């Protein structure tokens, strides 16, 4: 009897346990992707562009045997299962709050069908699925370092041996009309190609050219030193097990990269155990923090979004984000600190803007990265740590290469010899600082100090 393979955040054929489960016994498999209007409405243009390009590639890889349909999954998936007489639906596990609610609704709808149509989840987008690593008393970890030790001790499976030839695919054209949709045209350009082949090629290039120095260079936005794998991991065009297989040599670069994958798993686990932390402070003490609102706050927020704050490293980061849908991780921390601690705006404002703009926008990583900076999350930076944007620029973009690339007003070295300190050489078309960092740092410390 046929089965149904429902692709979600796993747009690949390699290392795909759910694919292997769906194809057991040489059964025929209908592969599908559901364009859920709720997710489409909450995704920025570049994230949709990546999705549509990755779906195009996946459909080609399967020789056209990928059905694209549109609607609420709790309606569409049971309809498709009934249409092909599927005995089971197979997915990769989704541990986000939205994903769990959606899957519960689909499971309940399948139970209403005549006969038994099972709903089976295999694997996850992580090296270790959320919920599997807990303390000795079965409570979740709240601090990264002990989680990291337990995570490494737990380990993970080797990549699953799957590919496009692992199943006998049902041709979607054999289904009756009313299900199929065209893959929409991408609504934006991307600065990196999307899809499984692109993900593997990007990883191989990084391992060959940059992994050895990753531990020293990863904080430098002026260098091409990061892997740029975040969007590929977000959409599952590559599994982190494929990455981890190249990180076992114990080198400093490999260990530093593996630690970043552990942070990804940690934040997914935190969101799994505390689903309200998607939009509320994980540390509820910070609910009492004083933040600004009103027209003046909105004006400052608009300047931050546009990259017109008058602080070069902040403006470079925000302009890179607007132009490409990506921003270097060190710069993400700098611009986040500026929004929360210099402008005194709610971290949720910045998190929402990032999710709208980022190709790699991931609810667990994004929200808990913002909370780390704001001081209200797990492993939060001490509240008294306020990034000085000028000193951050000098330390991590010492020659100003990154700033000059993204802030054209500061590109002329003869007119602007020092992009970090513009006293006496600030171009007329580049804005004055919208706030005084020293004063706002003191104000931030005052506000945070009132919580203790």
Automatic annotation (TrEMBL):
Residues 1-125 form the Photolyase/cryptochrome alpha/beta domain. FAD binds at residues 214, 226-230, 257, 260-267, 360-362. Its cofactor is FAD. GO terms for biological process: nucleobase-containing compound metabolic process; response to light stimulus; response to stress. InterPro entries: Crypto/Photolyase_FAD-like_sf, Crypto/Photolyase_N_sf, Cryptochr/Photolyase_FAD-bd, Cryptochrome/DNA_photolyase_1, DNA_photolyase_1_CS_C, DNA_photolyase_N, Rossmann-like_a/b/a_fold. The keyword Protein biosynthesis does not apply. The keyword tRNA processing does not apply. GO terms for molecular function: deoxyribodipyrimidine photo-lyase activity; DNA binding; FAD binding. Pfam families: DNA_photolyase, FAD_binding_7. Binds 1 FAD per subunit. Keywords: Chromophore, FAD, Flavoprotein, Lyase. Belongs to the DNA photolyase family. This is Deoxyribodipyrimidine photolyase. The lineage of its organism: Bacteria, Bacillati, Actinomycetota, Actinomycetes, Mycobacteriales.
